[in-house]
Design a protein that fits this description.
The protein is of the alpha/beta class. The protein folds into 2 domains: about 95-185 and about 250-505, Alpha/Beta hydrolase fold, catalytic domain (Rossmann fold, 3-Layer(aba) Sandwich); about 195-230, no CATH class. The chain has 14 helices and 12 strands. The protein has a 10-stranded mixed beta sheet, with helices on both faces. Strand 2 and strand 3 (about 140-150) form a beta hairpin. The protein starts with a helix and ends with a helix. It binds alpha-D-glucopyranuronic acid. The site of alpha-D-glucopyranuronic acid has 9 residues, from loops.
């Protein structure tokens, strides 16, 4: 049982590397996307004077080139870049120096070397509510709105970008409600259906239309006179007992008086290198290749989340001062980048984000910098990030230890806003590849920024080399900086109930 669970977990992790959009494509289409992606990757290497990149290690532990899982080799450069010392060597002792001097220095390094900069002129997004539906999600009445954020493409009509999102808000609470923006696939949770009399009208007209199109169908309908092609789904049963275990995260949120907004990342920017010539990145670049400091997909997704927040600021059902961001895996990275760079976000739940997320780039354990610099993942990052995987280049060679910043500083950029770092356990499929420990170290280290700003950190020291990871299911949720490793797999679902209680406390919300 256990083994098969692990196998499924690993399978899912590998499979999730092929992003969702790619699934629907034919092999030929996938091949051509991969070829174009490699071409873009090669071109960026050329731009940067890189002739060879170190290959990334394999996630398969039986492969000869498997990733390192030996703790004694995991910290080749254990001393992390300082959070509270300025580039000029001055200690940061007060909030003012943090906001005015140190924080902008860290932002600059992350933008230039890691995630890329937002372009100076990004076209406006205009939001429309395409559909408004009144639904019942189990026992909670909700309003669900399908939202379309159309990006003005007057400057380059060849590329269309329509951000696809769905807002669901409970209507049995006073409101306005807090909302969690979740990277994922928008879908109406429980579309309202017409009553039986209307279904009968639809059936009559539908049958007539079908017979008009193909008169031979009449004999079928005559043979089965009581048969109707459109069937009304059973209505929700309000008295049905709740299923055992946790409800889906979205239902937990609604039951707690929160709304949620599902945001489709691929409608903002495709999840592959070939897509860099389209989506919002391609639109702004008018289809041309990226410059080394241009934004990558993570920053683009974060930008899209901020545009969704623009919409929420206009919706009277929503308390836009209490909007959070959530994501898992690559979208956990995107959630962290969003919280770090977009200061209107009040809170974040960062799920199993791994390398490029909360895990230290410098750590050599599981996924490596060299995986992120490969053609399959480098579109998440700025082009410049490739330098840190270079073995031969005009500038010599560099690795993760050469990065001017690391993920503890990205978490520090979120301070003092509540930041919940979530993981599962490898035994259930939240693979070692993600390096939970490297994330814990970064979270521990980030605490100094939270404390400087008068917030509470994990409640342990900030000595990331000494602190040991607490056992799973231990909640370090007393402060604005929070950590919890649940006993499930590659999801933040099992932490949702803990997140909600903590978030309510942090934001002072009680439905
Ligand atoms: C791969 C990748 C991770 C990423 C994950 C995912 O495992 O190496 O960096 O987080 O896919 O998004 O599913």
């Amino acid at each position: 049982m256990k083994k098969s669970r692990i196998a499924i977990g690993l399978f899912l992790l590998v499979v999730s590397q092929l992003n969702a959009q790619m699934w629907s494509l034919s092999q030929n289409e996938r091949d051509s996307i991969n070829r174009l992606g490699q071409k873009n990757h090669e071109a960026m290497k050329g731009r940067l004077g890189i002739t060879a990149l170190r290959p990334g290690p394999s996630g398969d532990e039986s492969a000869p080139n498997h990733a390192n899982y030996d703790e004694t080799m995991a910290d080749p450069c254990p001393h992390l870049p300082e959070i509270l010392i300025t580039a000029g060597g001055k200690k940061v002792k007060d909030a003012e120096t943090w906001w005015e001097k140190r924080r902008p220095e860290i932002v600059e390094d992350f933008e230039r070397e890691v995630y890329g900069r937002l372009p100076g002129h990004i076209p406006e997004v205009s939001w429309t509510v395409a559909v408004t539906d009144h639904e019942f999600v189990r026992r909670t009445p909700v309003i669900a709105k399908q939202l379309v954020g159309h990006v003005d493409n007057g400057s380059y009509p060849e590329i269309d970008v329509d951000i696809n999102a769905l807002l669901v808000v409970p209507t049995n609470v006073k409101g306005p409600v807090p909302v969690l923006i979740m990277f994922g696939r928008p879908a109406f949770p429980a579309p309202a259906q017409p009553p039986q009399e209307d279904i009968e009208k639809l059936n009559a007209s539908f049958k007539a239309l079908m017979i008009e199109k193909d008169p031979s169908l009449k004999t079928i309908f005559d043979r089965y006179p009581a048969y109707h092609p459109i069937v009304r789904l059973p209505p929700p049963n309000f008295f049905a007992p709740l299923p055992e275990g946790d409800l889906p995260s979205t239902e937990q949120l609604l039951a707690a008086g929160w709304g949620y907004l599902t945001l489709d990342p691929s409608s903002i920017q495709a999840d592959h290198s070939a897509g860099l010539g389209s989506g919002i990145i391609g639109l702004v670049n008018q289809g041309r290749a990226r410059e080394p400091e241009d934004w990558g997909a993570l920053r683009a997704w974060a930008w899209g989340a901020a545009r969704a927040l623009d919409y929420l600021e206009t919706d009277p059902l929503v308390d836009a001062k209490k909007v959070g961001i959530e994501g898992v895996s690559r979208y956990g990275k995107a959630a962290l980048v969003t919280l770090a760079f977009e200061d209107r976000f009040a809170i974040g739940l960062i799920g199993s984000s791994g390398k490029g997320g909360t895990t230290l780039h410098r750590r050599v354990f599981g996924e490596a910098v060299e995986n992120l610099t490969g053609s399959g993942e480098s579109h998440w990052m700025a082009g410049n990030y490739l330098k840190y995987g270079a073995s031969e280049a005009t500038f010599g060679s560099m690795d993760g230890c050469d990065l001017p910043v690391d993920s503890h500083q990205l978490i520090a950029l979120c301070a003092p806003r509540p930041t919940f770092v979530s993981y599962g356990i490898p035994e259930q499929g939240d693979a070692k590849w993600l390096d939970q420990k490297g994330s814990y170290m970064a979270t521990v280290a980030a605490g100094s920024a939270f404390k400087l700003l008068g917030a509470k950190d994990l409640g342990v020291s900030n000595d990331y080399l000494k602190e040991t990871m607490p056992p799973y299911n231990t909640s370090l949720l007393d402060g604005q900086l929070a950590w919890r490793q649940h006993d499930g797999g590659h999801t933040d679902g099992p932490n949702m109930k803990h997140f909600i209680l903590w978030a309510n406390r942090m934001l002072g919300y009680d439905k």
